[in-house]
Amino acid sequence: MGAQTSMGAHAIDLWDESMSANKEILVRLMLLAASAALCVPLGEAVVRVIDGYELLSLRLIVVPQPIFGVEDDAVGTPAEGGWVATSGVEREWFVRDPPRPAGKDRNERLLELYRAAPPEVGYGSIYQWNLEFLRDRACRGAVSSEAFDQFERIFYYTPLDGSILPRYRFIRNVTDPSGMVINRFGYRGPQIAVNKPPETIRIAFVGASTTVSSHGYPYSYPEHIAHWLAMWGRRAFPNIRFEVINAGRSGISSPDIRAVVRSELLPLEPDMLVYYEGSNSFWPVDYLDWPDGRLPERPAVSFVLKSPLENYSSLLRRLLALLDAGYHGDGAEPEKVAHTVTWPAEIDEFDPDPDYPGLPTGLTGIIGDMEGIRTDLMQIGAEFVPSSFVWMVWDDMRLALPRHARLFQALNQSYGIFTYAHLRRMVDFQNRVFRNYAASRGLEFIDIAALFPRDPNLVRDAIHNTPEGIRVRGWIVFQQLVPMLRHRIEQGALPKLDRERITAHPALAEPRFQSTTWAKLLRSCD
Q1: In the beta sheet, which residues pair with residue 174?
Q2: Is the pLDDT of residue 70 over 60?
Q3: For position 21, what pLDDT does the model report?
Q4: What is the pLDDT of residue 229?
Q5: Taking a C-beta distance cutoff of 8 angstroms, is the pair 493, 444 a contact?
Q6: CA-CA distances (angstroms) from residue 327 to 51, 108, 284, 318?
Q7: What are the beta bridge partners of residue 89?
Q8: Helix (H, G, I), strand (E, B) or coil at 206
Q9: What is the SS3 assignment for 380?
Q10: Residue 387 DSSP label
Q11: Residues near 146 by Cβ (< 8 Å), separated by ≥ 6?
């Protein structure tokens, strides 16, 4: 009995020791969890500050960086120690925001369709597509990146000239799911009349995504310019008003832009049209000599999104990047295969002939489309103003990662077979072609690229600006437009009345929401 009692007591002691040990482990685990609960948010906060993300936002949002020169000597043409404003323009205008255009509430049906579409399609699910373009894709099996077979409905319009271009328009007179206001002509921005009012100068801007800008951004660069022109006009020419048309749309290239001008803008009779595009046909592989004659592989790079959770944690993004074999935390360009350019004897790299038929990077076709735009505008007495195009790349560029991760990925994945030096070389060549084209036709030329700061904080990737970068680009264009407009007004060339008064736009008479399905389009091919 005594032995049993002793064994029982020993068992109780062992139980007590075990419970005590378990309690100690539990306490340690609780302390560890409490430490993690404190340290992880603290670590996340510290890394967010280091990496330049907003501290209190749920999703990672980059903190806007100061714009070069703005704090000291704001705005204008870059000069030693700052920017100098054009005569008649006030520095403080630069930081004034335009009024937001009045628009209708978001269209709920469009919002539903947008949310139901595949993520990679985005706003394409609520565009108004060219019916001839759709038939071309459905019936002739042409290559297309749009997932039309996954659309619940496909909105369309019938082109008057039977062309497949432009491929799409924005649906007119709506506010899209992002909040972008689209006017009665399908353009981003405020309403305008079909006929230009008296004493009005109408300026159109054409291009692709870099002109229309991100749908979710509050302003595009033409909207900034419209606001500054209004302020300048009230002071310099109080009896004259300025209207701006933003006819840009994402993903299009020069053939689409030419079609936009011909079918949509000519009836609106702009007095001046500014052309800004230089990426959607840009692939600088022409005249390149590769080792062994083969294209190299793109370099392995880090800061590529591996998990949706990285959109919410800078700490996780850093950790996954460190575990990546392609980590480039110093922001330097990854090692790439060297390549050389062998120019034809007929091409002068530094003074190219814009009419040479073998220009690289699609420039021969682009110049042909620009010439078509120029001659079309001559029919209505309008002026064509080409511009240079901004790429954020140069040799020996070093980026702050992960703040500039999207720019790093664009240059080293999308264009990863090319060195930074080669991209810069071909971008500069492209802009020289644009400059020489303008000079050969006696046109004004807006050199944006020469004046835009080499500041990666002003871009999201190699070509798309942040809201701050959009403002800077708009200011550069505005500064160069002011002397042109002043000269034409003082000479009596502007403003001028429309050549033809119309009651409605001939190409925009169809219903906005007529739609079809991919299955119906396929059946119509029989």
Answers
A1: 182
A2: no
A3: 62
A4: 98
A5: no
A6: 16, 43, 26, 10
A7: none
A8: strand
A9: coil
A10: B
A11: 121, 124, 137
Structural contact between residues 283 and 415, judged by C-beta atoms closer than 8 angstroms: no
CA dist., res. 496 & res. 380, Å (int): 11
Q: What is the dihedral of CA 35, 41, 42, 45, to 10 degrees?
A: 170
Structure tokens at 351: 């003074």
The span from the CA of 304 to the CA of 416, in Å, is 13
Q: What is the pLDDT of residue 165?
A: 97
Token representation of residue 25: 């482990």
Question: Looking at the DSSP assignment, which residues form a beta bridge with residue 79?
Answer: 82
Which residues of 342-416 form beta strands (DSSP E)? 383-386
Compute the chain's Rg from CA coordinates.
29
Q: What is the pTM of this model?
A: 0.87
Residue 107 makes CB contacts below 8 A (sequence gap 6+) with 174, 175, 176
Instruction: Please identify which residue in the block is written with the tokens 């360009």.
Output: 333
Hey, is 243 helix, strand or coil? strand
- Cβ–Cβ < 8 Å for 277, 257: yes
Tokens of 464: 């798309």
**What is the pLDDT of the chain when averaged over all its residues?**
87
Which secondary-structure segment (H or E) carries 30?
helix 2-51
DSSP 86-139: PTT--GGGGGPPPPPPP-PPB-HHHHHHHHHS-TTTGGGGGEEEEHHHHHHHHH
Task: Tell me the C-alpha distance between 509 and 489, whole Å.
Answer: 34
- In the chain, domain spans: 70-523
* Chain mean position to CA 506: 30
If you average pLDDT over residues 150-165, what whole number do you get?
94
Predicted pLDDT at 37: 67
Question: What is the identity of the amino acid at 243?
Answer: E
* Three-class DSSP category at 360: coil
Dig out the tokens for 313 from the structure: 């944690």
b/e burial code for range 114-125 (CB count within 10 A of at least 16 → b): beebeeebebbb
Tell me the two tokens of residue 491.
């000479």
Label residue 42 left, alpha or beta by phi (over 0 means left) and psi (-120 to 50 means alpha): alpha
Handedness of CA 390, 392, 393, 396 (dihedral sign): positive
Q: Give every CB contact of residue 40 below 8 A, 6+ residues apart in sequence.
A: 315
Token pair 């020489």: residue = 436
Contact present, 63 and 402 (Cβ < 8 Å): no
Instruction: Output the pLDDT for position 291.
Output: 84
Angstrom distances, CA of residue 235 to CA of 203, 307, 476, 493 = 19, 53, 20, 20
The residues, any chain, with a CB within 8 Å of residue 446's CB and separated by 6 or more, are 274, 385, 386, 387, 388, 476, 477, 480, 481
Type of residue found at 306: K
Beta bridge partners of 288: 341
Select the CATH number that applies to the domain covering 70-523 from these four: 3.40.50.300, 3.60.15.10, 3.40.50.1110, 1.10.10.10: 3.40.50.1110
In 3-state terms, what secondary structure has residue 69?
A: coil
What three-state secondary structure class fits 156? strand
d(CA 210, CA 470): 9
